[in-house]
Amino acid sequence: MTTYTARPVAPSALEELRVADDAGRPPAPFTDDEGGAPLRCCLRRSEPGERITLVAYAPLRRWAAETGAEPGAYDEQGPVFVHAEQCPGPATGAAAYPFADAHRTVRRYSADGRILGGELVDAPDDAAFKNAFDDPAVALVHVRAVEYGCFLYEVRRP
């Protein structure tokens, strides 16, 4: 059992992204013939034959809209894979953090949306999140892929 919660892209955001992404572009769904794409809607890898789409997503912007933060230049958008249609979301009772099969960056943000640093980890785990949240200024962390810097999921202060 994990202590912190890996949060997928919110269902309300997914509805919007399936109409127009955070760059204003309509989605271009396709059939994933190979599988393996990291799906941010359900926090698992795609299976061959699933319909998915790659959209521009601005996670900090959406978080800031909820909290009133002003991330300024730290507001960035990047590519994320999601199911082309509504899915049931993450499986309940998952024993580990998703996408833990490679080095990841745990990027820390303050309550006003500023980057406070980050840590390269072998895999996201309770120790990495505890380390991040031991700093009282950290309100939110993003787990990101090292090779491309892509957003994978967020973890909020418990």
Looking at the chains present, what oligomeric state does this protein adopt? single chain
Overall outline? globular
Distance between the termini: 15 Å
Which structural category do the helix and sheet elements fall into? alpha+beta
List SSEs in N-to-C order. Answer: HEEEEHEEEHEE
The pLDDT mean sits at 94
* Number of beta strands: 9
In this structure, how is the largest beta sheet organized? 4 strands, antiparallel
Note the total helix count: 3
**Strand residue percentage:** 25-35%
Strand ordering within the main sheet: 7-6-8-9
Indicate the low-confidence ranges by residue numbers.
none
Helix content: 10-25%
* Rg calculated over all Cα atoms: 15 Å
What does this structure look like?
With 158 residues, this protein is an alpha+beta fold. Helix content is 15%, strand content 31%. The protein has three helices and nine strands; from the N terminus they run H-E-E-E-E-H-E-E-E-H-E-E. It has a four-stranded antiparallel beta sheet, with helices on one face. It has a three-stranded antiparallel beta sheet with strand order 1-4-5, with no helix packed on it. A two-stranded antiparallel sheet has the order 2-3. The model has no long low-confidence stretch (mean pLDDT 94).
